[in-house]
Design brief:
- The chain is α+β, with helices and mostly antiparallel strands.
- The chain contains 5 helices and 14 strands.
- Strands 3, 4, 5, 6, 11, 12, 13 and 14 form an 8-stranded antiparallel sheet that branches. It has a 4-stranded antiparallel sheet with strand order 9-8-7-10, with no helix packed on it. Strands 1-2 form a two-stranded antiparallel ribbon.
- A hairpin with a 6-residue loop joins strand 7 and strand 8.
- The two termini are 43 Å apart.
Length: 328
Amino acid sequence: MGDVAVGARSGHDGEENRGHPVEAADPVAGAPASGHDSGTEDGRVTDEHGGTQDEGVGGTPPATSPAAKKQRSFWKELPILIGIALVLALLIKTFLVQAFSIPSASMQNTLTINDRVLVDKLTPWFGSEPERGEIVVFHDPDDWLAGEPTPDPNALQTVLSWIGLMPSADEKDLIKRVIGVGGDTVECNETGPLKVNGKALNEPYVYPGNTPCSVDDQGGQFKVKVPEGSIWVMGDHRQNSRDSRYNQSDSHGGMVPVKEVVGRAIVIAWPMNRWDTLPVPDTFDQDGLQAQSSAAAALSVAPQGLALAGVVPVVWWRRRRMAPADTR
């Protein structure tokens, strides 16, 4: 280094000044006053290779200057960032939220063709089960989609769908409204109203011009008791929905096993002019109909409670770290 301080004066200089006191070093030059000094006046010490390094307070080596660290190229970091983003997207899709596309008119006008909905997949992991009035996505329980056209996504759409960055292209998933849960009796007589446990439902979400019940001999007139561990589902477009009513001859009697439920649709995310939440209609809160147990109620709030419990220690830890040190 060009500015390294010399440890001692030259021999010629020593001869000229023999017997005379050595003058103080020029403060501008910054050279040491004695050949025995290993340090320079600006607080640096000479290393064994003749180089210099900053001397910390009390003789301890200082922290490396951030400017001295060579920053990694953005293009070298980009693949790492993309990899992290893909892993996070996959985790979110697997455990938290997944997007689904609506392919048919069976849920009109609540949901229309090509709507994109976000489905909560977290709550079922904590034991919460579907409730009356919720709109849920579930795997085809027993060939309900037999004969229906299936999508044929390209390779890119398949990959993006798999990691959750595009709506699911899985042709084996359906979306309907939960009408009855385990232990309920659901019935339809004539054109309606639809009844659950003897209570008539007021259903403003039913497609305009449709009747709550369908008058036909294929399943539109029924009275069923939902077994534990299953749900009874119907589309909001009652005269255009192949739902539990029309699958009573399958192995589950038209019921959907709870284990086949992917999660609850909570919001219409796309297109933007269709953005809306998907709450449970008030008719499912009427007295005598909603008999949720305290255990089930506790499970329904488990994710929020656990999230709060996880946040509290993190906030405490951060506050401890940010607190000023005691200087007394």
